[in-house]
Amino acid sequence: MVGALAAGLLCAAGLAAPAAAAPTAPAPAEGLALTPPMGFNNWNSTHCRAEFNESMVKGIADIFVEKGLKDAGYEYVNLDDCWALPSRDANGKLVPDPVRFPNGIKAVADYVHSKGLKFGIYTSAGTKTCNIAGFPGSLGHEYSDAQQFADWGVDYLKYDNCNNQGVDAKLRYTTMRDALRATGRPIVHSICEWGENKPWEWAADVGQLWRTTGDISDNWGSMLSILKQNLPLAAHAGPGRWNDPDMLEVGNGGMTDTEYRSHFSMWAIMAAPLLIGSDLRSATAETFEILGNREVIAVDQDPLGKQGTVISSQGGRWVVAKEMRDGSRAVALFNESGAAQRITTTADAVGLPAADAYALRDLWQHRTYNTAGTISATVPAHGTVLLRVAADSKSVQHPPAVELGLDGSPLVEAGKKADLTSTVTDLGRTTAKRVSVSLTGPEGWSVKATSPTTSPALSTGRSLRTKWAVTAPQGTPPGSYGLTLKASYRSPSGVRVGSALPLTATVVVAPPSGTSGLGDLPWLSATNGWGPVERNTSNGESDAGDGNPITIGGVVYGTGLGVHADSTVEYYGGGACETVTAQVGVDDEEGADGTVAFEIWADGTRAASTGVLTNAMPAQALTADVTGAQVVRLVVTDGADGVTSDHGDWAEARLTC
After folding, report:
1. Out of 215, 362, 546, 603, which one is annotated catalytic?
2. Which residue range or ranges hold the Glycosyl hydrolase family 98 putative carbohydrate-binding module domain (predicted)?
3. Predicted local distance difference test score (pLDDT) of residue 90
4. Exposure winner among 194, 208, 250, 516, fewest CB in 10 A?
5. What is the pLDDT of residue 23?
6. How many CA atoms lie within 13 A of 85 on its CB side?
7. Nearest CA-CA partner of 598 in 590, 11, 589, 607
8. Looking at residue 30, what is its pLDDT?
9. What's the rounded Cα separation, in Å, for the pair 371 and 401?
């Protein structure tokens, strides 16, 4: 039942069209967002800070033109929250902040339009927007605000979900749809209700895109969690009706360039809106290279409008395939794990017809190869290989695809020899000739081949396997170090091809004997769904060190790890450890919210798990036998209901070696 305030809004100003408005069932907006919208939104880079102003917005429009982003397909320059004053004027109109926008919003929109671009704005389907300052929302003012936006020349409205007074979501967003249509101006309606009411099930005729998740943050764990929530919704996407996993974080500095390429690749294969969230006035060349990759953009913008579907996802090795209008398939080989992994599929598995050979285009290398049907690559940690594959008998004119790989543990103890084996495998229909391989490491490391490094020829499916002895010098500090595996070969026509695979070796320290608190031990890697993993406190919020005492069911614990689903923390066991013990549960800091599940993995085997735990449950004891494991992995998942408030605690977590 709608509450008293909400009912008043419905009846008073509200959600019904004024008498002079358009008919009650206006015709649908035709031709809007037939491909996923592309553009810019300031929120991820500026939030409500002072640098969000007219100068910034105009500067972004200039850069779109100057840097070729407009020509690449980026179209919308959108404002987010904080553009208005906290109060409406005497006539109930929204008032632009005169400090941020001294010439008003229409002047900014006119400038953006003068560049051949489109202009977007923000408000909320509530009494106020989401910012703590309390800027006015559009609930109860839909027709007036929509007309004001149209008069200013707005082309795109992001419509948020804060302070909604409990009014039914479908009613709120449908009313704004009708208000936008009543203006007579084509305005894209971006529904930002965070997936709370499953808009993919009802919003296809309400807006052109809908958020499927909560807000993204500029870290790997957040991006990964949102990706996993959006991928299963592929059947609901199509021209003019897109799943929106939130804006891009590429270039904001919280992830590596490898992770940003994965972010961009996976948003593209999901046919997601591509809204740049970094301040392009200070962006690096690498950021522009990622955002401007037209072959990746073409995957996102394919007019067939299919969202990629998951073919497989075992062990963090994801294969996602997207049908393209020309009959080809875009294929993402995505590695969510912290170590390089071989990810493989076939042309048949991704939906291509039987053929003697296939053209395989690497969209980041910008090279074309031929394959006999195997689609495979060793993908670096957190990396993505994005391909476009098509049945093509003429593809044999291109060099054969060759896969590089490295077997053996990349974990190295300083001063001790590690044995690794490289592989160079011909995936093509044609023969790779005069094949050679090399492996290099950091200066001062010993990297020696102990078996042949060349082969005169490799036919389809055959491999050159080379053994290597790798030693980090005694005293090498723990951490990650780069190795590079390179192969060289010639196609049947004599074209020389070079290929390189960047890899990571991690110098580790043997775990101490006895029982140690995991909150005090160094980890190999840590990913988290919200902010960083915290040592000996709860997760807290998004900043490092902002946790509270670990508390489960009113019981306070002095040690452990505070995480937020989805989370993975890896420790080096070195084959010397025996057990992991912990008291686990949902931290009290989120009140009654939060559902999580805990898992302990010994290398590739799940050694213990809890099932789904809620905030109402006391801490549960969890013990795992990790005997002989090289890597011990602590995993927290979201309980299969989304990640809102999923603060998990590994209280009194201990490792015995």
Report:
1. 215
2. 512-657
3. 98
4. 516
5. 36
6. 13
7. 607
8. 65
9. 6
Q: Distance between CA 236 and CA 223 in Å, rounded?
A: 21
Residues paired with residue 309 on neighbouring β-strands, in sequence order: 321
Helix (H) or strand (E) holding 290: helix 285-291
DSSP string, 540-561: -SSSTT----EEETTEEESSEE
| Residue 343 contacts residue 318 (beta carbons within 8 Å) | yes
Could you write out the DSSP letters of every residue in 476-543? PPSEEEEEEEEEEEE-TT--EEEEEEEEEEEEE-PPPSSEEETTTS--SEEE-SSS--EESS---SSS
Triad 566, 567, 571: Cα angle to 5°: 160
Structure tokens that stand for 45 in this block: 């880079």
State which amino acid sits at residue 25.
A
pLDDT per residue as tens digits for the range 260-311: 999 999 999 999 999 999 999 999 999 999 999 999 999 999 999 999 999 9
pLDDT for residue 19: 40
Q: Where would I find the beta strands (DSSP E) of 34-124?
A: 38-41, 76-78, 118-124
Q: Return d(Cα 127, Cα 482) in angstroms, integer.
A: 53
Q: Which residues contact 54 (CB under 8 A, 6 or more apart)?
A: 100, 101, 102, 103, 107, 108
Q: Nearest Cα to 430, choosing from 521, 539, 356, 367?
A: 356
Q: Which of 145, 160, 392, 587 is catalytic?
A: 160
- The pLDDT, as a whole number, for residue 641 is 77
Q: What is the pLDDT of residues 487-497, one digit of tens each?
A: 999 999 999 99
> Which helix (H) or strand (E) element contains residue 4?
helix 4-11
Structure tokens at 517: 């608190």
**What is the model's pLDDT at position 410?**
87
Give the pLDDT means over successive 10-residue stretches in the chain (657 positions).
36 42 42 97 96 98 98 98 98 98 98 98 98 95 98 98 97 98 98 97 98 94 93 98 98 97 98 98 97 98 98 96 98 94 97 98 98 97 97 96 92 94 98 98 97 98 98 95 97 95 93 96 91 95 93 97 95 96 95 91 95 94 97 92 87 98
Cβ neighbours of residue 134 closer than 8 Å, sequence gap 6 or more: 86, 128
CA distance 58 to 64: 10
How far is Cα 444 from Cα 114, in angstroms, rounded to an integer? 57
Cis peptide before 326 (omega within 30 of 0): no
- Spatial CA neighbour of 516 closest among 562, 581, 456, 468: 581
Task: State how far the alpha carbon of 503 is from the alpha carbons of 253, 379, 435, 450, in Å.
Answer: 22, 9, 20, 20
Task: Please state whether the predicted TM-score (pTM) of the whole model is above 0.70.
Answer: yes
Would residue 215 show up in a list of annotated catalytic residues for this protein?
Answer: yes
User: Which residue(s) pair with 479 in the sheet?
Assistant: 507
Mutual angle of helices 104-114 and 54-66, in 10-degree steps = 10
Q: How far apart are CA 656 and CA 251, in angstroms?
A: 41
